[in-house]
């Protein structure tokens, strides 16, 4: 009998995971529900983006062989209290809430569920882009305020179309590839900058250097992982290379972008509009220049939040456990959460 702790939360709930595990036999499953998202995640001990439930885990883990979780902090302290633990499955793109060095030192295998939110994040990206191009949040607020602004039909005030534009994607993983397919369905020309992209997956997109992508893109959308190489990769210098009046979207990682430079580009009119789901500091500070910048659309890091994402994460976790139980090899995980 394999003892499994499902440390769920109010998004990837224990019930979803237990239901997904129903097809497997020989499991003794116990559950715990953490406070996220009603209580924000943060750094806990030596791991990031976790719920502060170390004490609960320390009490629950003795005798547990497998942990399935999204937000539980698998810290050095927690792992030390789990001598029987053999496998951790994190229902996210990467196990940022796991001390990987401590897990490796104890011979604990770590797996994750990459791609579980690719559909949701790609669709949210397109929604942000369309909202920015057509100024939907601002005009919605205007109507609610009792206005009916026919002046927005003026040529210098109207929005623009996605069809016929040139859209540049920085990063071409699971989310970027799906965004590219949607953009092409809108009759946009798609450029891609990703040194690690497989040319066989371009499917009509054009691979270019970052300089060429910036100089040609009327729409710029970021989909890169946050690494030492990509942190701060789009700043004032890069924004100045975009065609005047370009639109910028970021639903990947806030650390990719200099938001103060973005606010200045919006104020000057160099950027026509921008839309963001992620920020360099979250929650967005009260003094962020984005709060007063014109023509900006903001959402609170919700791109991957759909019912289907939660269900997909639970199913992929069950598949990961089944694969582990059968001894099948899997690719090593990374620390990325995207």
TrEMBL record:
Protein family according to the UniProt entry: Belongs to the D-isomer specific 2-hydroxyacid dehydrogenase family.
Organism: Dactylosporangium fulvum
Domain annotation D-isomer specific 2-hydroxyacid dehydrogenase catalytic: ranges: 51-330
Record PROSITE patterns: D_2_HYDROXYACID_DH_3
Keyword set, alphabetical order: NAD, Oxidoreductase
Pfam families found in the cross-reference section: 2-Hacid_dh, 2-Hacid_dh_C
CDD domains noted in UniProt: 2-Hacid_dh_10
Keyword Nucleus applies: no
Keyword NAD: yes
Protein name: 2-hydroxyacid dehydrogenase
Domain D-isomer specific 2-hydroxyacid dehydrogenase NAD-binding: 126-303
């Amino acid at each position: 009998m394999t003892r499994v702790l499902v440390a769920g939360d109010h998004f990837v709930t224990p019930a979803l995971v237990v239901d997904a595990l129903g097809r497997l036999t020989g499991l003794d499953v116990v559950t715990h529900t953490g406070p996220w998202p009603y209580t924000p995640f943060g750094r806990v001990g030596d791991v990031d983006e976790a719920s502060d439930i170390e004490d609960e885990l320390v009490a629950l883990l003795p005798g547990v062989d497998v942990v399935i979780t999204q937000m539980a902090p698998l810290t050095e302290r927690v792992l030390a209290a789990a001598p029987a633990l053999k496998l951790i499955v994190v229902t996210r793109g990467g196990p940022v809430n796991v001390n990987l060095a401590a897990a490796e030192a104890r011979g604990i295998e770590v797996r994750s569920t990459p791609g579980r939110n690719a559909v949701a994040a790609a669709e949210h990206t397109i929604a942000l882009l369309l909202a920015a191009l057509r100024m939907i949040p601002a005009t919605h607020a205007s109507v609610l305020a009792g206005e009916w602004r026919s002046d927005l039909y003026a040529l210098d005030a109207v929005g623009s179309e996605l069809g016929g534009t040139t859209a540049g994607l920085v990063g071409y993983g699971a989310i970027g590839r799906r965004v590219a397919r949607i953009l092409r369905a809108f009759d946009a020309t798609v450029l891609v900058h990703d040194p690690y992209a497989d040319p066989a997956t371009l499917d009509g997109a054009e691979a270019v250097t970052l300089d060429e992508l910036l100089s040609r893109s009327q729409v710029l959308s970021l989909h890169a992982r946050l690494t030492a190489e990509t942190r701060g990769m789009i700043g004032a210098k890069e924004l100045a290379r975009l065609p005047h009046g370009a639109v910028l979207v970021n639903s990947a990682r806030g650390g990719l972008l200099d938001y103060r430079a973005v606010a200045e580009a919006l104020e000057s009119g160099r950027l026509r509009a921008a839309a963001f789901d992620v920020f360099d500091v979250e929650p967005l500070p009260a003094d962020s220049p984005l709060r007063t910048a014109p023509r900006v659309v903001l959402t609170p890091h919700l791109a991957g939040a759909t019912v289907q994402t939660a269900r997909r994460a639970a199913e992929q976790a069950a598949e990961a456990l089944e694969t582990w139980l059968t001894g099948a090899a899997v690719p090593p995980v990374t620390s990325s959460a995207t």
